[in-house]
Amino acid sequence: MRTDRFPPKNLDAEEAVIGSVLLDGDLIRSLTLQVDDFYHEIHGFIYSSMLKMKEAGKSINQITLAQKLDEDGKLEACGGVAYLSHLISITPTSMDCLHYAEIVQKLSNSRKLIVAGEAITKMGYDSDIEGINKADDMIVELRKRSGSSPIATPRERVELMTEHYTELSNTEDGVAIETGFTDLDYRIGGGFHKGEYILLAGKTGMGKTSAMQFIANHVSRRHKVLFCSAEMGIKEISHRDVATLTGEPINVIRSGVYSEDVEKKIMTALGQMDMMEVYYNKEIPLTTSNILQQAITMQLRYGLGLLVIDYLGILADDYGRSAYDRISYISRKLKQMARQLDVPVLVGQQLSRPQDRRNENKRPVLPDLRDSGSLEQDADLVLFLHREDYYFKTEEEWNAAFSGGNIFYKSYPKGIVEILIAKQRQGPSGKYVKVLWDETHQNYKNLAREE
């Protein structure tokens, strides 16, 4: 066994963690590192003082930390105020603090594993009859020290739920993220919830992208939204916002032939769009992997309240031997993504054609999900868009059906869209609400009840 190798360590990463916290003291709350995770003693001293300041509720910056180190009798041993200034100057950005901490944690775990391995080797040579039990204890202790346990104790569960219910009661508007469709929010517990994987499905041309854009724009009033479109570019999506904000038909906005009045309206609309907290991806093709990376980057740099993906079927992930395998794989990744990011993930998806062959009631059902795989199993919430006038080729056909005495069509004036709640893991399914499709501006309007 070689003994001439140096223990794994990374001075730059340790300095960057300390420097990041000096630049942004609030970052200490997101770190799970222990003092002995730092290889260099000086960094352990500094981090220890930072943890004491966090526990005392004190803000952390170069001045307050220097004062605390001096109180602890460690300032001179740590290189004084000059070393703290050095740490700030060499830290490229505090935004990557968690990445630096991950490096420090990984190398700390490696060092602990080496120590445990050497101890276990010695026990093997000593032929200690209790060696196996001791070795097992060491591995368990190593697991405990290198990260949180994957098992929640009864006490941990109660603490988690106490914190959750306290948050619920102290939040004036609740913790759900409202979609902007008032009746829908009422049916789904106030809106979308953190960690939920939500499918919004409909036929081609039914208005899925516009519905997701409506929700994203509404959510952006209070939360930051990342909108990832594999189907449409930023310009195409933005035309719809401009049409809605200006009140001009979308074909006029796209034409490029503007009157002076329309041009002024467009400039005003662009100013309003600048205030919307909706961020759009620019990377094509889109895969679940690069969507996750974009979402993590945004979460760290700007914050993230909702992730929207348009749409599942054309993501570029290559997996399995069939469309069924590929869709099932993508669905599982999106489910994991919602849990990992702890935000709602709203995903569009196409419906298959069998519903077209149903005679009268063409409302979609769960088996209509295209290449469904595990979609209905994975999703926490499945919503379908349904519009009766979609299935009539001409205005004359629709008018004939609507005025022909058929009670079924009498309840569906042109443009009325049903949002069907096909599945809801935390509430009743089979309900629907009505909203209005504005074809001229390619947008939706809320039809909330008076009460």
Short overview:
With 451 residues, the protein is of the alpha/beta class. The protein contains 17 helices and nine strands.
Stretches where pLDDT is under 50 for at least 5 consecutive residues are: none
Give the end-to-end Cα distance, rounded to a whole number of Å.
Answer: 77 Å
| CA gyration radius, whole angstroms | 28 Å
**CATH architecture annotation name of the largest domain:** 3-Layer(aba) Sandwich
Biggest pleated sheet: 9 strands, mixed
Strand content: 5-15%
CATH class of the largest domain: Alpha Beta
- The helical percent reads 40-55%
Strands of the largest sheet, in order across it?
Answer: 3-2-4-5-1-6-7-8-9
CATH topology of the largest domain: Rossmann fold
The computed structural class is alpha/beta
Number of domains: 2
Oligomerization category of the chains in this entry: single chain
Structural features, described:
The chain is 47% helix and 11% strand. It is an alpha/beta fold. The chain folds into 2 domains: 11-146, Orthogonal Bundle (DNAb Helicase, Chain A), CATH 1.10.860; 182-445, P-loop containing nucleotide triphosphate hydrolases (Rossmann fold, 3-Layer(aba) Sandwich). A 9-stranded mixed sheet has the order 3-2-4-5-1-6-7-8-9, sandwiched between helices. A hairpin with a 7-residue loop joins strand 7 (416-424) and strand 8. The chain starts with 10 loop residues before the first helix and ends in a 6-residue tail after the last strand. The mean pLDDT is 85.
Fold blueprint:
Blueprint: H1 11-23, H2 41-55, H3 62-71, H4 80-90, H5 97-126, H6 131-146, H7 154-170, H8 182-187, E1 197-202, H9 208-219, E2 225-229, H10 234-246, H11 250-255, H12 260-273, E3 278-280, H13 288-301, E4 306-310, H14 323-341, E5 345-350, H15 375-378, E6 381-386, H16 395-403, H17 407-410, E7 416-424, E8 432-438, E9 443-445
Parallel strand pairs: 1-5, 1-6, 2-3, 2-4, 4-5
Antiparallel strand pairs: 6-7, 7-8, 8-9
Helix pairs in contact: 1-4, 1-5, 5-6, 10-12, 13-14
